[in-house]
Design brief:
The structure holds three protein chains of three kinds. Chain A is α/β, with parallel strands linked by helices. Chain A has helices at 36-52, 67-74, 94-108, 128-136, 190-198, 244-257, and strands spanning 2-6, 9-11, 16-19, 24-27, 32-34, 55-61, 80-84, 113-117, 140-151, 154-161, 164-171, 174-178, 203-204, 224-229, 238-239. Chain A starts with a strand and ends with a helix. Chain B is of the alpha/beta class. In chain B, strand 6 (87-88) and strand 7 (91-92) form a beta hairpin. Chain C is α+β, with helices and mostly antiparallel strands. Chain C has helices spanning 7-34, 39-47, 66-79, 81-100, 103-115, 230-266, 278-306, 313-343, 349-359, 366-380, and strands spanning 120-123, 139-143, 146-157, 164-170, 180-186, 192-197, 208-219, 223-224, 268-269, 272-273. In chain C, strand 2 and strand 3 (146-157) form a beta hairpin. Chain C starts with 6 loop residues before the first helix and ends with a helix. Chain C is built from ten helices and ten strands. The chains are: A alpha/beta, B alpha/beta, C alpha+beta. Chains A and B meet through strand 3, strand 4, helix 3, helix 4 and strand 9 of A and helix 1, helix 2, helix 5, helix 6 and strand 11 of B. Strand 11 of chain A pairs antiparallel with strand 17 of chain B, so a sheet runs across the interface.
Chain lengths: 261, 404, 382
């Protein structure tokens, strides 16, 4: 079973705030991590490979430093990583990103399943996974919380919805996006870590994956950010005091007053 | 690329790098000599052209020149604001009416109609409900194939509708179903899509201004996609207000026949309803969440009882989900659900940032914690320092007494 | 202090730290409370390749040496010295095979140990033979192609949980210490059973148990080295393992220092963090100095071993002596810095304090270590 897993390097989301006085961004530290949801996709891909044999390729689009994220995937059992990095990819929105990743998938060629985290913590859009599937013209199942069975080119999945889950049967190849419930990602092993350090991550440019230049980067992105600003500040809260019973009375009255209860 | 660093102005001070939310700027040694500065800012492909660095740079050394893109077609032929109605078990999802409330307002500003897309099997009699909720037109497609929610069938049908009627704006609920199909429709039509908007407006050019949180709500961004049509956005439940239903409203129902030959390319074998949850988190007005302070799986009974008293949903922090005290479907936070309830009561939750980003956009937050220094109090509107096993029963008693 | 670790050594520490944070931390309090040996955490050690660090590559290990083993044990014990001990004690139980086993024995047993499937234990101490190991009563009598073992060993770390035991028994009681031999005994061998499980002050997540031999027949292929070499095997094993027990103590000390230093910066009294009070700051300074001195001594001793140095007995004993005394002192003072909070179970410090004590006692009490050091020292002035 040949698997492709898409990962994104993201800043630890807690790092970014806006200074409300100067309205500029304050970013403490530059620690970059693999998008946590992508780790579940990596784990699922490696588990499937261990069960059915085959090969797992991790794929990421980003700056040269994102090679580190791909190396991290190698340390937990991914066979090879490919980085898409090109100045022409700058300013990509989800549509351009989906197109670019889909081009790379085409270059990789043979695959049975593409796995993605259901969304990235920096953007929270959940759009790139389905976007890739659309570009490739393959079925897509989002919010997958369990792979029940893979047999004779068909996979049976559980897809989480707000009120329960669907059991879906779908033919390979398919793209799935996974939620946390699906597994517990393993820790890297020493051997994996050592192998990863020595690994070379090939870098593919727009030319390598034969992109149409007006479909990538800013030119290929219908959306653009006009401005960024700090969210409205919350007025600072109030600590209640007094006996527990007194506080209980007070909070109940407050909430009633606000017509919340 | 549209972003440039003027090497004669850049001092290599690094302020831009600190201010870049995407970590796309590094300060590197110059390749060419500069009389004064040894280092220079270098912008990597991670750049999204958000412009934060332009603002941050004290030397005006960074400039962004957006390539002026011209629309490839006449945009004036696109008219109407559409809302894609979402149904489950024969009922409209609340977000549908909320979107219509906002959609109506946008349509008025654009001097056009508000249309509602209704798909399903046996749904025709539902059209009046949409009209009384504000729809000027209902574009309905009645077909047996639309009975169950197959992404592909919905994507194909809605795309065909958009191609035929050319709306300028299309809004969907940011639900599991809505998010999945929105992305595929935008991919098919090559138009812009903005996820999870919290604000929608029309600017002086007549473009849709889409405001959304990024970085777990720490930053807000205004996003445009004005050169392509339709402009698509998804919006979470409970962000906008529905209109009061009015049976006197008039509207037109357009029948749309489904394109032929759609392959649904998968098979939904069954739907298993989650019975562990009386009220689902995403829709709940009131959420009572428990954290490590609850102490054990048994300890969650008090949280459940409290939630029951308030007719709210039960949430949980990651720590207690990982400990196996409560299923994952209850987890609120970065790797769980993001909620924006009217009232959020955090009990025995210390307030790790990963939890805060998942709940801090709730309207009113009450925190109950033993530790006065817990960070949850920083986002709380009301804080109570005390043992939740004493505080909660006291509040329940208070509510029950005052209710009588 | 910068010890100029290689990339690989840094990765070893990083992996051990990750396993500690993700897998030890969630269970350590519960294991301490319930005296439970966390088999599931040992499986995580195995998955992360930590069990094979010091085993040669030909036997399925990673082919590193004593220094890397020390790094792993230190890092794991920074989180929990009882859980980290499972790996350290397996290291101890493996040493007789690694140092003096036959090629067949190595091929048969080491791959399982390296992969983490086999947990091992070392059996020397008896109820009546602690520091005076020569007084042991367990016997092994040759019978055709087998040896028949009788007797019991007490306070055996990993006892009951280990799959493989290296045991010293007398083959010729008339010859005193020259009449002892070393054997490999597999769990499940008829006549091999487990006795009392000890209840302990510290390292409560480690199992300490009596092991009992009643006409236990083992194949003669399980004899390590030759008959009569038992004490040589034991002594060499202990010399080589001392940096291991020392690094356990080091991990405990470092963990306690981390607790106290962090706490001192957060705890406000008299309007300022208590770290600004000199009496507190000096305690921390002494704790840090002792810990770092222990580390330098241990690391250098381990490097001597890896460099093939034959005579490291004195330094090994010094490492064990100094690090364990440092661990006791540092944990005591860490609690002092933290006051009442340090004494409570809300912080891990009281557990480290209880764990520290054993490091002054087992694998040769610190009094025995001083004897060893003095002996070696005085030989140099002969």
């Amino acid at each position: 079973m040949n698997l492709i897993v898409c990962v994104k390097q993201v800043p630890g989301s807690t790092d970014v705030k806006i200074n409300p006085e100067t309205n500029t961004l304050v970013r403490e530290g530059v620690e970059a991590i693999i998008n946590p949801f992508d780790l579940y996709a990596v784990e699922e891909a490696v588990t499937l490979k261990e069960k059915f044999g085959g090969n797992v390729t991790s794929l990421s689009m980003g700056p040269p430093q994102a090679a580190e994220a791909l190396k991290e995937t190698l340390s937990v059992g991914v066979d090879e990583g490919v980085l898409l990095s090109d100045r022409n990819f700058s300013g990509s929105d989800t549509l351009a990103t989906s197109y670019t990743l889909a081009r790379a998938v085409k270059k990789i060629g043979e695959y049975d399943m593409i796995l993605c985290g259901y969304q990235a913590i920096d953007g929270d859009t959940a759009q790139v996974g389905p976007g890739i599937a659309e570009e490739l013209g393959i079925p897509c199942v989002t919010y997958v919380k369990k792979i029940r069975e893979v047999k004779d080119g068909v996979v049976i999945l559980e897809r989480m919805l707000e009120t329960g889950f669907q059991v879906i049967e779908v033919k390979l190849p398919v793209l799935i996006t996974v939620v946390k419930d699906i597994n517990t990602p393993r820790l890297p092993s020493l051997r994996g870590k050592m192998k990863a350090r020595k690994a070379e991550i090939p870098v593919w440019t727009a030319a390598d994956i034969a992109c149409e230049m007006d479909r990538i980067g800013q030119p290929g992105s219908p959306t653009w950010v006009r401005k960024i600003f700090a969210p409205p500040q919350k007025t600072s809260g109030r600590m209640l005091s007094g006996e527990i019973s007194q506080q209980a009375k007070e909070i109940t009255e407050e909430l009633k007053h606000l017509q919340l209860i | 690329m549209g972003i440039r660093v003027d090497s004669s102005k850049c001092s290599g001070c690094g302020i831009c790098a600190k201010g870049c939310p995407f970590g796309a700027i590094t300060i590197e040694d110059r390749k060419k000599e500069h009389p004064k500065f040894k280092r220079i800012a270098v912008i990597s492909p991670a750049c999204t052209l958000c412009g934060a660095c332009v603002k941050a740079c004290p030397f005006n050394a960074i400039t962004i020149k957006k390539e002026e893109k011209k629309p490839t077609e006449d945009l004036s032929i696109y008219k109407g604001v559409w809302v894609i109605a979402e149904m489950s078990e024969g009922q409209f999802h609340g977000v549908t009416f909320e979107l219509m409330g906002k959609g109506k307002e946008l349509a008025e500003k654009r001097n056009t109609y508000m249309g509602c897309v209704l798909l399903g099997s046996g749904i025709k009699e539902k059209a009046p409900e949409l009209i009384s909720a504000g729809a000027d037109k209902v574009i309905a497609c009645e077909n047996q194939l639309l009975k169950d929610f197959y992404d592909t069938v919905y994507v194909e049908t809605i795309s065909a509708m958009i191609k035929e009627y050319k709306p300028e704006i299309v809004l969907l609920g940011a639900t599991a179903a809505g998010r999945g199909i929105a992305s595929r429709i935008s991919g098919r039509l090559k138009c812009g899509l903005t996820a999870d908007c919290t604000g929608l407006d029309i600017d002086s050019n007549g473009f849709l201004v889409q405001t959304r949180p990024a970085f777990g709500g720490n930053i807000m961004a205004e996003i445009l996609s004005g050169n392509n049509r339709p402009q698509m956005a998804t919006v979470r439940h409970k962000v906008f207000k529905p209109l009061e239903p009015d049976a006197a409203r008039k509207g037109e129902v357009i029948d749309f026949s489904m394109p032929e030959g759609i392959d649904r390319n998968m098979n939904i074998k069954e739907f298993v309803k989650d019975v562990s949850q009386q009220v689902n988190l995403a829709d709940a007005d009131i959420i009572v969440s428990g954290g490590r302070g609850v102490g054990s799986a048994e300890g969650f009974e008090i949280i459940e009882k409290f939630a029951g008293t308030l007719a709210g949903a039960v949430g949980a922090s990651r720590a207690v989900v990982d400990a196996g005290w409560i299923p994952y479907s209850h987890q609120v936070g970065q790797t769980g659900r993001t909620v924006c309830s009217k009232l959020y009561i955090a009990c025995g939750i210390s307030g790790a940032i990963q939890h805060l980003v998942g709940m801090q956009s709730s309207d009113v937050i009450v925190a109950i914690n033993k530790d006065r220094n817990a960070s949850i109090f920083q986002v709380a509107d009301y804080g109570i320092v005390g043992d939740l096993f004493e505080v909660i029963p006291a509040i329940i008693r208070e509510i029950e007494q005052s209710g009588n | 202090m910068d010890y100029f670790l290689t990339e690989e050594q840094k990765e070893i520490v990083e992996i051990a730290s990750l396993v500690g944070k993700e897998k030890i931390v969630p269970v350590m309090e519960e294991c301490d409370e319930n005296e439970r040996f966390p088999t599931e955490v040992y499986e995580e050690f195995a998955k992360s390749d930590l069990c094979g660090v010091a085993i040669p590559e030909v036997y399925g290990g990673l082919g590193f040496g004593a220094f890397e083993q020390v790094l792993v044990v230190e890092e794991l014990c920074r989180y929990d010295a009882g859980i980290g001990l499972a790996l350290a004690a397996t290291g101890l139980g493996t040493l007789p095979i690694l140092l003096m086993g036959t090629e067949e024995q190595k091929k048969k047993f080491l791959p399982g140990i390296a992969s983490g499937k086999t947990i091992t234990a070392f059996g020397l101490t008896e109820a009546g033979a602690g520091s005076d190991a020569g007084a042991m009563k367990t016997t092994a009598v040759k019978d055709g192609d087998s040896y028949i073992l009788n007797g019991s060993k007490c306070f055996i770390t990993n006892g009951g949980d280990a799959h493989l035991y290296t045991v010293i028994a007398k083959t010729d009681p008339s010859k005193g210490s020259r009449g002892a031999s070393a054997f490999i005994v597999e769990k499940g061998t008829p006549g091999f059973s487990f006795g009392k499980k000890e209840k302990k002050l510290g390292i409560r997540s480690s199992s300490t148990r009596e092991i009992v031999f009643t006409d236990c027949r083992i194949p003669k292929e399980n004899l390590i080295s030759r008959e009569g070499m038992g004490f040589i095997v034991a002594l060499q094993t202990l010399d080589n393992s001392r940096p291991g027990v020392a690094s356990q103590a080091l991990g405990i000390a470092q963990g306690a220092l981390d607790d106290a230093a962090k706490y001192s910066r957060e705890r406000i009294q008299f309007g300022a963090p208590i770290s600004s009070i000199q009496a507190v700051a000096h305690l921390l300074a002494d704790m840090a100095t002792k810990t770092e001195a222990a580390r330098a001594l241990i690391y250098q001793t381990a490097k001597m071993i890896d460099a093939g140095c034959k005579n490291f007995k004195k330094e090994a004993s010094m490492s064990k002596l100094f690090a364990s005394d440092a661990a006791m002192e540092v944990t005591t003072n860490a609690i002092q810095v933290m006051g009442g909070y340090g004494y409570m179970k809300d912080y891990p410090t009281e557990r480290r304090f209880r764990d520290a004590k054993i490091t002054q006692i087992y694998e040769g009490t610190n009094q025995i270590q001083r004897n060893e050091i003095a002996n070696a020292l005085l030989k140099e002035y002969r």
